Amino acid sequence: MLTAALGLFAVILLTAATGYFVAQEFAFVAVDRARLSAAADNGDPAARRALRVVGRLSFMLSGAQLGITMTTLVVGFIAKPALAGLIEPLLPPAGVPSGAVDAVALAAGFVLATLIQMLLGELFPKNLALARAEGLARALAGSTLAYLTVAGPLIRLFDRAAEKLLRAVGVEPVEELHSGATLEELGDIIDRSAGAGHLPADLSRLLDRALSFGDRTADEVMVPRPQVRSLASDATVAELITLIRENGNSNYPVYGQDMDDVIGVVGAREAAAERLAPSTPVSAIARPALMIPGSQPLYGVIDRMREAGEEFACVVDEYGGLAGILTFEDVAEELVGEITDENDAREEAPVGSADGSWLLDAGLRVDEIELTTGLALPEGDSYDTVGGLVMAELRRLPRPGDRLVVPLGEDPAEPDGHAEIEVVSVARRVARHVRVRALTTPDAVSTAASDGATGDAVGPAERENVQVPAQGRADDASPPSAVAGDDEGAMAASGEGPWTR
């Protein structure tokens, strides 16, 4: 009986040792390194020791695994006979036949040892470490460092053997776990936090925009050339003032021979100069234009603007021509969303219908459509906007009534669904308004695809029911039929340059 009691004591002791190594393993993996660093900077010696362990996380995990394995093996060797010895005297009074006592006692000892090992040696310390990771990491740091020092040679021996086995099968071992997170992982964290209610919706959108900000380039955010108003070099200050009054914008490119020959920028600050005759040509007061390539990332654009002390830039395409213009407000809107002031025309907000469709401005970027409607239209290298997507899919200029079916989601090979895009109106040969709806059934997808393939257009009765927003952009003075005409020459002659909408 004494031997059985000593065996039970050994089982309890070894189970506690297993729990120690399990708690060690989970506590240092789950602990917040930033909080430990802050505590260490404030002079907390336990936090400094914990940071030393976290800095050798892979080595510590190997040591914890070694400790867990050794203590578990020893418990398995001792527990069954020790516990069986305690259980065996209780079985005959319970009516167990004498011939079955040994087998039943051994089986009961095995079950009891497994329960003790799982509950007290594995699950309890694991859950405790996850719930109190920082406190437990501080408490275990000193003993963990001592253990790693004593068992270090044996841990390294097993580590090197495991690394050789990995390399033998073509896998390169990783020495330490990375403590940071990729942009995709951060995005997932933000989405999960917002879904669980831990982040306000506005803050979640701001963080999502901040993560995608680094991927944006100037040509994705710029005001494209067809929407740019400009002045010829021989235009006068009086014309500049009139343009500012009518259009509301503060700065305009000044061009020489043609729109691609940008010679400077002029705006309200130059027009406000004293003793300036209304007949003065704008070329005499224009300041140098900040020129940036369309491929410039937005953070690079901010640096260029800051260095030049400029908030207005001309975007140049790969052929050296003017691709569009970019203001600091355009860049800021990529972070905080639309910024509206008294000079902005009222934007056409997406209009949702009872049937689940959306009436959209085709000039919106594909990612902006997803933020508004939740429909993840396919992105492509050859276009940025929904109008560009329509032309890329049709492979011709669009006409009102054109319909096409596109996959939803990031991977067209494995789409999350399909959507139908219908061209509602056209301006200057490109789609102006489109109607987008998700297709929810395979039959709807096949029917819509068949209609699109045969060029099926909406009928006159349907077209009368299309609700196109009455308020367009401020500079869209013509109906689609008029805008579709080639009036670039007339605008160039007037000194305004080509623009639309």
From TrEMBL:
Superkingdom of origin: Bacteria
Any coiled-coil regions, as ranges: none
Protein keywords: CBS domain, Cell membrane, Membrane, Repeat, Transmembrane, Transmembrane helix
Nucleotide-binding found in the keyword field: no
UniProt entry tagged with the keyword Cell membrane: yes
CDD domains in alphabetical order: CBS_pair_CorC_HlyC_assoc
InterPro entries recorded: CBS_dom, CBS_dom_sf, CNNM, FAD-bd_PCMH-like_sf, FAD-bd_PCMH_sub2, Ion_transp-like_CBS, Transptr-assoc_dom, UPF0053_domain
Compartments, record wording: Cell membrane
Topology versus the membrane: Multi-pass membrane protein
Transmembrane segment boundaries: 57-79, 100-120, 140-158
Domain CBS stretches: 222-282, 285-342
Cellular component aspect of the GO annotation: plasma membrane
Domain CNNM transmembrane: 1-203
Gene3D superfamilies linked to this entry: 3.30.465.10, CBS-domain
The protein's name in its UniProt record: HlyC/CorC family transporter
Family under the similarity heading: Belongs to the UPF0053 family.
Positions of region (Disordered): 442-501
Chief localisation class: membrane
Organism field: Actinomadura harenae
A GO MF label: flavin adenine dinucleotide binding
